[in-house]
Design a protein that fits this description.
With 867 residues, this protein is an alpha+beta fold. Among the domains are: 89 residues, 2-Layer Sandwich (Alpha-Beta Plaits); 160 residues, Multidrug efflux transporter AcrB TolC docking domain, DN and DC subdomains; 41 residues; 103 residues, Multidrug efflux transporter AcrB pore domain (Alpha-Beta Plaits, 2-Layer Sandwich). Helices cover 48% and strands 23% of the residues. Strands 1, 2, 3, 4, 20, 21, 28, 29 and 30 form a nine-stranded antiparallel sheet that branches. Strands 5, 6, 13, 14, 15, 16, 17, 18 and 19 form a nine-stranded antiparallel sheet that branches. A four-stranded mixed sheet has the order 12-7-24-23. Helix 13 packs across helix 17. The two termini are 25 Å apart.
Length: 867
C-alpha cells in the first residue's frame, strides 16, 4: 500500500503526521466542555400562560383549547400535551427530531400571536420557551437570614447577588426559587366598603385616574429649555392609603377608610426554607457549550467573594452542586482509562515477551485515544461519561490494529527476513485487511448514531467516539506502527532467551497444540458444530426473552428529590405543616448533609398550594456506610417513615437514575384518554387500584381527581338586567375581590412592580362573605351581590390534562423491586382485559423511553449485521 510504503521509507514524515494528530487532540481536550451527559437538545417547546383567579375548567376552555387548536397545525409535532390548572395553562409540544428547535419555537410563537387577540384581556403575556437540556441549574445556592424577611432577601438576591453571578464566565441565567416579589397590596374590607358606598370598581377607576405618569413636554425660551415631569404616580404605602377612591359632596373617601395599603408580595403561598430557616434559592444555569466544572468553580469562587459583602446575619451557601458528581464521575473514568491502558500494555508484554515489540502498540494506543479528542472537538461534542466510556472500550479495540501489523511483521522477522524488508512485505499483505477490519468495526458502532428517539440521541457521541478511535487507530497502524517496527525490531538470529521466556513459550505452544487438535476435530464434525451453533442461537433468543427489562438502573448520586402532596383544596399553611414533618424525618437521618424545602414552587406560573418539594444532599459515599438506596428504601428508611409519620399528605421520595434524560419525567407513567371527566376520574382510580394490587410499583398515584372544593356562583341574568347591573361588572368585581388582580403599576429603584387589590383574608373566609359584596348599577345605586347571584358548593378537578388534544389522566409511580419492562407487560395485559370501551392509553416516562429504545435497538443490530 502506498501510504504504508511511504511511512516506512520516510519515518520522520509519518512521525510528524501522527504528532500533529496528538497536537490537535491536546488542543481539543483543552477546549472540550466537560459535562455529565452529551448535549442532547430535545425538540420540545412549552407555552405557559397565566390567568389570575381562573379555575381549571375556565383555563381549559378560554386558553388551552384555543391555543392547542392553533398549535396543532404546526408541522412535525410528535406529541402535544397540556395542563390546565388554577391560574395557568401549560402546553408542551414535542417535535420530531428532524425539526430544528429554534425554527419550531418560532413557529409556535407565530401561532400564539395569531390567537392572542381572542384570549382574555386579563392574562399575562404567553411565554414560549425551549426546554433545552442545558436549562437545568447546575448549582443551587441558598440565601437565608435570621434578621431579614423573605421579601427583603428576594430584593437582595435580585439587586446584588444575581447580577454578580450572571457575570461569571459561562453562566447563562439565574433562576430565583422561593422568591417573594414586591407588590403594593391594597387589602379591602367589605364592611367598610359597604358603609362608605364604595365598590372595588371605584378603586380600580381611582387608580387609573390618579396613579398615572405621562410625558408633559418642556418649557423653552431663546436660550434654554427645560423638560417637565409631572409627578402623578404614588410611591409609598402611605400615599396609597391617602388615595381618594370616592367623593360624596364635601366628604372624601380614601383608601385608608375602606382597607389598608401595605408593601407586600405578589404571592403569599410560596414558602422556602434551607437549614430550617426562611430563604430564597438561586439556581445557576450554564451556557449550552460551557464547561460544567469550570462554571461551577467560577460560581463557587464568586459566592465566596459575595459572602463578606452581605448584610450581617445573612448567609449565602451552596445547597446543591451537580458538578461535584460530574467531576467525580469523569475523574473515575480517567482513572479507569489509565488502568485499562496499563493492563493492555501488561498483557501485550506478557504475551510478546519483548520490550521492543511492546513499545509499538504502547505508543499506538494513546495516540489513537488522544486523536479521538480532536474528532470530538471538531464535531462539537464534549467530554462526558458516555464519550469517556467509549474511549475506555476503544482501548481494547484500537490495540488490535497495532498487534495485527506487529505480528505480521514479526512473523517475517522470525523467518529470517530483515525488519525493513519484513515491514514492506507484511504491509503489502495486510494493509487491506486492516482497512476491512476498520470498516467492519465502524459499521457495528456507527448505526447507533442513527437512532431517532431522544434516548437514542444520547449515544450519538458514544458511537462517533468509538468510530473515530477506530479510524485513527487504523491510520496509525498503516503509518507509524510499520515505520517503528522497521527500525525498532531486531533480527532474532543469535538471540538467547531466559528460563521465564522458555517457560511461557512451552505454555503457549501447549495451548496452540490444544487449539489445533480442537480445530481439526471440529472440521471433521461439521454437521455437529453447525447444530451446536444453531442451538446456541436459539438458546440465546430464549434467554433474551426470559431476561427482565429495565430502562436505567438507579445510581448513588448522593441526592434525593421528594414530592409532598396534600389533598386538593389544602392551603399553603396546611401543606407547610405536613412538609415540616417530612423535613424533621430528613433532618434525623445521620447521612444527610443538607436539605432545602419549598411549598408551592412557582417556576412556571403560579404555584400549587397543595404541592411541596424537598431537595436532599447526602454526605459523600466515602463518609457513609449505607447507600442512598438503603437509606431511602431499606427497612426503617426514609420512604417507610414518610408513610408512617407524615399524616395528611403523601410524601414520595425519588432517586436519580444513572442517566437523567429529563428531570420532568416520571419513572412510570400510564396515560388514559377520554373526554368524559367523570368517567376518566372513575376509571383511572380503578386502574390505579389494580396496579397497586400487582405490588410491582411504589407510590402509585392518579394525577386527575374531581375532589377540589369549589364554590359555584350563578348569575341571575334577568334580575341583573332589571336592576341595571351588567354581567361584566359582576364578574369583574368577583375577579378582583376574590382572585386578586394587578390594577396598576408602581416604579421603585428603576423597576416596575404590581399594585394589586383584593379582599383581606378575613373578608373572604366563607361563602357567606359574598353577601357583604356590592356592585353599582347604572343609576349609581349599590346592589348587594347576593341578590344577583346564587351559589352552591361542589367539587371540581384541580387540573385538566390533555394528551393529543384529548382529556387525559396520568397514573404515575416510583420503581419497585420489579423491572419496569416486566411491569409494562403486566399492566398492558391487564389493560387489554379491564379498560372500558371508548378509552385509549399511552405510555410516558421511562415506560415510553424503554419501548422506543427496545424497538430501535433491534433496528440498529439488524443494520449493523447487514452493513
Amino acid at each position: 500500500m502506498i501510504l504504508s510504503r511511504l511511512s516506512i521509507q520516510r519515518p520522520i514524515l509519518a512521525t510528524m503526521i501522527n504528532l500533529v494528530i496528538v497536537l490537535f487532540g491536546v488542543i481539543g481536550l483543552s477546549r472540550l466542555p466537560v459535562r455529565e451527559l452529551p448535549d442532547i437538545d430535545p425538540p420540545i417547546v412549552s407555552v405557559t400562560t397565566v390567568y389570575p383567579g381562573a379555575n381549571a375548567q375556565v383555563v381549559e376552555t378560554e386558553l388551552t383549547e384555543r391555543l392547542e387548536e392553533q398549535i396543532n397545525n404546526i408541522e412535525g409535532i410528535k406529541t402535544l400535551r397540556s395542563e390546565s390548572r388554577e391560574g395557568a395553562s401549560t402546553i408542551t409540544i414535542e417535535f420530531d427530531l428532524s425539526r430544528n428547535i429554534d425554527v419550531a419555537a418560532q413557529d409556535v410563537r407565530d401561532r400564539v400571536s395569531r390567537v392572542r387577540g381572542t384570549l382574555p384581556k386579563d392574562i399575562l403575556e404567553p411565554i414560549v420557551a425551549k426546554q433545552d437540556a442545558d436549562a437545568q441549574a447546575i448549582i443551587w445556592s441558598a440565601l437565608n437570614s435570621d434578621r431579614y424577611t423573605t421579601l427583603e432577601l428576594t430584593t437582595l438576591a435580585e439587586q446584588q447577588i444575581k447580577p454578580r453571578l450572571q457575570g461569571v464566565a459561562g453562566v447563562s441565567s439565574i433562576i430565583i426559587g422561593g422568591e417573594k416579589r414586591f407588590a403594593m397590596r391594597l387589602w379591602l374590607d367589605s364592611d367598610k366598603m359597604a358603609a362608605r358606598h364604595v365598590t372595588v370598581l371605584d378603586v380600580e377607576q381611582a387608580l387609573h385616574q390618579q396613579n398615572i405618569e405621562l410625558p408633559s413636554g418642556r418649557v423653552e425660551n431663546l436660550d434654554r429649555e427645560m423638560t417637565i415631569q409631572t409627578l402623578g404616580q404614588l410611591k409609598t404605602a402611605e400615599e396609597y392609603n391617602q388615595l381618594i377612591v370616592r367623593t360624596e359632596g364635601t366628604i372624601l373617601v380614601r383608601m385608608r377608610d375602606i382597607g389598608r395599603a401595605e408593601a407586600g408580595t405578589e404571592d403569599y403561598r410560596t414558602i422556602a426554607r434551607a437549614r430550617g430557616k426562611p430563604c430564597v434559592f438561586l439556581g445557576v444555569v450554564k451556557q449550552a457549550k460551557a464547561n460544567t466544572v469550570s462554571v461551577a468553580q467560577g460560581v463557587r469562587s464568586e459566592i465566596a467573594a459575595i459572602r463578606p459583602t452581605l448584610p450581617q446575619g445573612t448567609d449565602l451557601w451552596v445547597a446543591y452542586d451537580s458538578s461535584v458528581y460530574v467531576e467525580h464521575a469523569i475523574s473515575e473514568v480517567w482513572r479507569t482509562l489509565g488502568l485499562a491502558f496499563a493492563l493492555v500494555v501488561l498483557v501485550i508484554f506478557v504475551f510478546l515477551r519483548n520490550f521492543r515489540i511492546t513499545v509499538i502498540p504502547s505508543v499506538a494506543v494513546p495516540l489513537s485515544i488522544i486523536g479521538t479528542l480532536a474528532v470530538l472537538y471538531v464535531l462539537g461534542y464534549s467530554v462526558n461519561i458516555l464519550t469517556m466510556l467509549a474511549l475506555v472500550l476503544s482501548i481494547g479495540i484500537v490495540v488490535d490494529d497495532a498487534i495485527v501489523v506487529l505480528e505480521a511483521i514479526y512473523r517475517h522477522v522470525e523467518e529470517g527476513m530483515p525488519p525493513m524488508k519484513a515491514a514492506f512485505k507484511a504491509m503489502d499483505e495486510i494493509s487491506f485487511a486492516v482497512i476491512a477490519i476498520t470498516i467492519s468495526l465502524v459499521a457495528v458502532f456507527a448505526p447507533l448514531a442513527f437512532q431517532k428517539s431522544t434516548t437514542g440521541r444520547l449515544f450519538i457521541e458514544f458511537a462517533m467516539a468509538i468510530s473515530g478511535a477506530v479510524v485513527i487507530s487504523a491510520f496509525v497502524a498503516l503509518t507509524l506502527s510499520p515505520a517503528m517496527a522497521a527500525r525498532v525490531l531486531k533480527p532474532i538470529e543469535g538471540v538467547k532467551h531466559g528460563r521465564l521466556f522458555n517457560l511461557f513459550e512451552r505454555g503457549f505452544q501447549a495451548l496452540a497444540n490444544s487449539y489445533g487438535r480442537s480445530l481439526r476435530w471440529a472440521l471433521r464434525h461439521r454437521l455437529l458444530m453447525l447444530a451446536i451453533t444453531v442451538s446456541t442461537l436459539v438458546l440465546m433468543v430464549f434467554a433474551y426473552r426470559g431476561l427482565e427489562q429495565d430502562f436505567l438502573p438507579l445510581e448513588d448520586k448522593s441526592r434525593m428529590f421528594c414530592l409532598v402532596l396534600t389533598p386538593n383544596g389544602s392551603t399553603s399553611e396546611f401543606t407547610d405543616r405536613q412538609l415540616q414533618k417530612a423535613e424533621r424525618i430528613v433532618a434525623s437521618v445521620p447521612e444527610v448533609d443538607t436539605f432545602g424545602a419549598m411549598v408551592a414552587p412557582a417556576f412556571a406560573g403560579p404555584g400549587q398550594a397543595n404541592l411541596a418539594v424537598i431537595f436532599v444532599r447526602f454526605k459523600d459515599q466515602s463518609q457513609r456506610r449505607r447507600s442512598v438506596q438503603q437509606i431511602v428504601y431499606g427497612p426503617g428508611g426514609v420512604a417507610q417513615r414518610f408513610f408512617n409519620e407524615v399524616e395528611g399528605a403523601i410524601a414520595i421520595p425519588n432517586l436519580p437514575k444513572a442517566i437523567e434524560v429529563s428531570f420532568r419525567e416520571s419513572p412510570f407513567e400510564l396515560i388514559l384518554q377520554n373526554q368524559d371527566l367523570q368517567a376518566l376520574a372513575r376509571v383511572s382510580q380503578d386502574i390505579a387500584n389494580k396496579i397497586r394490587g400487582m405490588n410491582s410499583l411504589r407510590n402509585v398515584r392518579v394525577g386527575f381527581e374531581i375532589n377540589k372544593p369549589e364554590l359555584r356562583v350563578g348569575i341571575e341574568r334577568n334580575r341583573a338586567a332589571a336592576l341595571g347591573v351588567s354581567i361584566e361588572d359582576i364578574s369583574r368585581t368577583m375577579q378582583i375581590l376574590f382572585g386578586g388582580l394587578d390594577l396598576s403599576r408602581i416604579k421603585l429603584g428603576g423597576k416596575e412592580y404590581y399594585v394589586m387589590a383584593q379582599l383581606a383574608r378575613e373578608s373572604r373566609l366563607t361563602p357567606q362573605d359574598l353577601d357583604k359584596t356590592f356592585v353599582r348599577n347604572t343609576k349609581g345605586e349599590l346592589i348587594q351581590l347576593s341578590s344577583l347571584v346564587t351559589h352552591e358548593q361542589g367539587a371540581a378537578p384541580d387540573s385538566i390534562n390533555h394528551y393529543g388534544r384529548l382529556r387525559s389522566a396520568s397514573i404515575t409511580a416510583s420503581p419497585g423491586t420489579v423491572p419496569i419492562g416486566t411491569v409494562i407487560n403486566e399492566v398492558a395485559a391487564m389493560l387489554d382485559k379491564e379498560l372500558p370501551a371508548g378509552f385509549l392509553y399511552a405510555w410516558g416516562g421511562d415506560a415510553k423511553s424503554l419501548r422506543e429504545a427496545s424497538t430501535e435497538i433491534w433496528w440498529v443490530i439488524g443494520l449493523a449485521l447487514i452493513i
